[in-house]
Amino acid sequence: MDLKDIKAIIDLMRKNSISEFELERQDFKIKLKRGSAGGAATAYEDGSTITYAAPLPLPGGIALPSPASAQSAPSNELEIKSPMIGTFYRAPSPESASYVEVGTEVNPETVVCIIEAMKVMNEIKAEARGVITQVMLDNAKPVEFGQPLFKIRPS
Amino acid sequence: MFEKVLVANRGEIAVRIIRACKELNVRTVAVYSEADANSMHVQLADEAICIGKAAANESYLRIDRIISAAEIADVDAIHPGYGFLSENAHFADVCESCNIRFIGPNSRAMNALEDKAVSRALAKKAGVPIPPGSEGVVDSEQDALAVAKRIGYPVMIKAIAGGGGRGMRVAHNDISLVKGFYTARTEAEKAFGNSGVYIEKFIENPHHIEFQILGDNKGNIIHLGERDCSIQRRNQKLVEEAPSPLIETKFRKLREKMGKAAYRIAAEANYTNAGTVEFIVDNQGNFYFLEMNKRIQVEHAITEEVTGIDLVRYQIMIAMGEPLRHSQSDIQIKGHAIECRINAEDPFDDFRPSPGRIEMYYQPGGRGIRVDSHAYAGYNIPSAYDSMIGKLVTYGKDRREAMDKMSRALSEYMITGVKTTISFQQAILQDPNFRRGVYSTTFIEQLLSGARRELLEEKA
């Protein structure tokens, strides 16, 4: 494989939003990984949510949107955001089933998860009516104030 | 050795603490409100956790959220900075009970100095002069009048839970005393949640001189000399210097006398970590204890410059259990340092706060210039917090050199997009009385009343 081929692969990766490419042959092995531009907000693949800050605005003064208030959901979806800091649990206990899954219908009083802070388990309510369309992070991960937990398609 | 420290503050002091931690190879965790997502301390820390909405009582004052953040980030210690929870004994207790070291005085020392009335009693016990005044809290109009009769007018009515220069009123006669007594109590209740007031003799044209204290957990206490903070507007410090020109030129012996008094206050309170003992000094060289601030202060930087000692680093070391490495005789005051607090306020419009976006930002540099700031070009100064955007500190071999550098540095400072106090501080540095080192806490008032006509004309 020569440099022209590698450049072609990189180009294909970019065009098709592929972030990782690995090829192994008898005589050689290549692994290409696309870095995120300018320092991403999420640092870990496992969904761990203690984040590195977004990069500074450019000297021209292009201010970055505040991560906590950025509305990343499409206009017909709502986000359930964390009202506190702690550890996110999807079920009332390790043996139980999760409170909600993708597709679960919720009303404002439905408990969607637990956030544990200082040994106190806090039940978090949906406070919206609709259907869960996405679970935004894994079980037992730390959460900060304002962090999106679930996406809901309101009914 | 701490592995991780959480900085429970924001702005320039959070940056200061993060710097000290990095130099000690300690990892840092920043907490921030939604209004501070683009703030410098968030950028510089190793980790950052959002703890709430902009309002301080929904974020930086939320003990539960800060402790939760400390838990999920698994920190060893918390540095509270100044303001916010830095002098909250309950917060210090909560930290300790969660096995998190609080980088500041122990809660017993905080309680021994918990309000101004209690502190006055402690000073009396320590044999340190206090301004004549009430024995403790004044509960009734009759008591207030009796105290005023005993000590003579003018008097000051002060909130026992007041701080940062707030919660004080002057009365010159019985009528204004009674009126002031009731208003002060109402204001104190609203501002500090405590309506308690006490009465002190009002010392005219006082000089505000404070002493930096350091104490370790083994009972060793030293002072690091004085700072003169008399340049105040409405009890808010604007310019500070070390050493005090009053002491240097008129009352040389006061340094040792007041230093010893500061030591006795700290010792009586069994004080640990960093703190500051505040005194007022009259024109005859009599000094009186005012209060002790149980935290690192904004103006700590000028003491660092003239002593060569990193105070925030010392705070962290003391919290880790290290004994003091300096004895009193090791402390040397060399040269002269001046600090200007750069506030986003419009000096031509009664110092109205000027939040908003900084367009252009260029800070001064060169030999003997230190800038402690979280500001940068493009930074949006939130309106939810105080207006200080940085501290400009100059150091010279003598006062003359420090002043010349300060004038030069102020003129070099370029900030556009928001108003700042820089032009006002340039005027202070040019003022002949300031340059002679002859000023008291009435300085700014006099400067403003003299200058008002010109400022008004400029505005028109």
Protein architecture, described:
The complex is a heterodimer of chains A (155) and B (460). Chain A is mostly beta strands and 155 residues long. Chain A has one helix and ten strands, in the order αββββββββββ. Among the domains of chain A are: 3-33, no CATH class; 78-154, RNA polymerase II/Efflux pump adaptor protein, barrel-sandwich hybrid domain (OB fold (Dihydrolipoamide Acetyltransferase, E2P), Beta Barrel). Chain A has one helix spanning 3-15, and strands at 20-24, 29-33, 78-81, 86-89, 105-106, 111-117, 120-125, 130-135, 141-143, 148-154. Chain A starts with a helix and ends with a strand. Chain B is of the alpha+beta class. Chain B has three domains: 4-103, 3-Layer(aba) Sandwich (Rossmann fold); 132-201, Dna Ligase, domain 1, CATH 3.30.1490.20; 207-459, D-amino Acid Aminotransferase, Chain A, domain 1, CATH 3.30.470. Chain B is 36% helix and 25% strand. Chain B has helices at residues 11-23, 40-44, 63-72, 89-97, 107-112, 116-125, 141-151, 174-192, 245-249, 254-268, 300-307, 311-319, 399-412, 422-430, 432-436, 443-459; strands at residues 4-7, 27-33, 47-52, 77-79, 101-102, 155-159, 168-171, 197-201, 207-215, 221-233, 236-242, 273-281, 287-293, 336-343, 345-346, 352-353, 356-357, 360-362, 369-373, 380-381, 388-396, 414-416. In chain B, the strands form six sheets. An eight-stranded antiparallel beta sheet of chain B has the order 13-12-9-10-11-14-21-19, sandwiched between helices. A five-stranded parallel beta sheet of chain B has the order 3-2-1-4-5. In chain B, strand 15 (345-346) and strand 16 (352-353) form a beta hairpin. The longest helix of chain B has 19 residues, at 174-192. The model of chain B is unreliable at 456-460 (pLDDT under 50). Classes of the chains: A mainly beta (155), B alpha+beta (460).
